[in-house]
Amino acid sequence: MAISANHKTPDADGERHAHVIVIGAGLSGIAAAVKLRRGGITDFLVLEKADRVGGTWRENTYPGCAVDIPSPVYSFSFHPNPGWTRNFVGQPELLSYIEDTVDRFHLRPALRLNTELLEASWSEERRRWVLRTDRGRYVAQHVVFASGLLHEPVVPDLPGLDTFPGETFHSARWNHDVDLTGKRVAVIGTGCSAIQLIPEIQPLVDELHVFQRTAAWVLPRLDFPVPRPVRALFRAVPPAHRLFRAVCAAVMKGLGLVVRHPGAARLLTPLAKLFLRRQVPDPALRAQLTPDFTIGCKRLLLSNTYLPAMTRPNVRLLPHALTAVDGNQLIAADGRRAEVDVIVFGSGFEMRHPPIAERIRCRDGRLLSEVWKTRSPEAYRATTLPSVPNAYLLLGPNIVMYHSLLALAEAQLDYVVDAIRTARAHRIDALEIRPQPFRAYNDEVQRGLSTTVYNTGGCSSVYLDEHGKNFVTWPWTVKRLRSDLARFDIENYDTTPAEH
Predict the structure, then answer these.
(1) What InterPro entries does its record include (predicted)?
(2) 7 band by pLDDT with thresholds 50, 70 and 90
(3) Of the candidates 299, 325, 345, which is a domain's last residue?
């Protein structure tokens, strides 16, 4: 039986040891802890740099912040929530659900909050990971990196930004001390976060200037309150809740199938244009809000309130990127200017150069970020890497699709837990994916992506890196992903047996 790491104290060298260490206590990190324990692996710790769990749902507190897929799908498989108050719940309710999961599964003793990973290095001599943190060293045989995709906000490097006299902040670091009432506000970007916050702040501000680099396709968000009697039914009759969740999942799978294939995705264009025409009567504004690429090439946005907000008298759309700042004047690519008091960046997150890669050293001493800079981010089954033994990336390269990221991370965790159990059962100190299956797998993924709307839809998206390579999305179905991750394929790995 494994010894619980929850009560371990530092050894004489000041190191803390655990069989498995999870980095990050967001949704995927919490799922990792539960899945490890359910797999009989109790000797684990979860390191979290913040003072509470929650990940992106702790960090993002902007007005209107909510899930962009149905809540029943965006839930742990092992802890379905029959009490969601809406079909698309807001950030406070989701964060409360994460906290409740931690307590329900008694995970707090395994948490190490306020502990930031500075560098993870593989020790060939010890056959262990040595993790340097701001709270001392940790040593583990296996490490699960659950730092998430939406982690590091991107603020563009704009000439003159340092001359702006007002307040500036990113949507993911919302400054609640700034009262926007009666202010002239600029929102930079029209992505997932921006379309949620724009309708919320529009009634408060005097002027709202929206800088739009590229128009986005918007479809209705099928949101509705879940009445109290229905929630009571879901609690009393779990099969009813499972059916509702299955229906939501089926809708997501169907939408994912449609937007993946260019021909099918174009079938949604008339619906999107009808929705746009009904919500934006002005032809000139409507033309500026109409994308010129195939639906699905960029992430599809769901909102019932964004397009109407853009028609309000105090809103001005600048259909160009923000290129420079001159004092309190913001300059668009076409030369137009907007004089504002506050800048809100809805400019997304760092995906092309994942920050966690700057903290992982491969077996040869190179940073993972250096490896990925030359070849683009790649991983085997989005999870493991050559020269990085006993390490597992959750939501790694080429796993994203129009589906719940949590469900995708859970599929990976089935693979990860099987890998750790296999290593323990066969007395293996190190597992490392071999170069040949790694290369074959990634080449197959790229061939699969070559005909998808992500690559052929005619847009420049965050899915493509500076080399034009798609390192984000998955080309096939959820079913295939789960099948690929259902069993740890040890035959594709080099193994180092334990010495004793």
Answers:
(1) FAD-bind_Monooxygenase_sf, FAD/NAD-bd_sf
(2) very low
(3) 345
User: Does 5 score more than 60 pLDDT?
Assistant: no
CATH number of the domain at 103, please.
Answer: 3.50.50.60
Residues in the chain: 500
In whole angstroms, what is the distance from residue 317 CA to residue 206 CA? Answer: 15
Phi, psi of 424 (to 5 degrees): -70, -40
Distance (Å, whole) CA 429 – CA 419: 12
What average pLDDT does this structure show over 475-484? 94
Q: What is the per-residue burial (b if ≥16 Cβ within 10 Å, else e) of 26-48?
A: bbbbbbbbbbbbeeebbbbbbbb
Q: Is 136 left (phi over 0), alpha (psi -120 to 50) or beta?
A: left
- Among candidate residues 292, 326, 345, the one where a domain is terminated: 345
Distance CA 263, CA 395 (A): 28
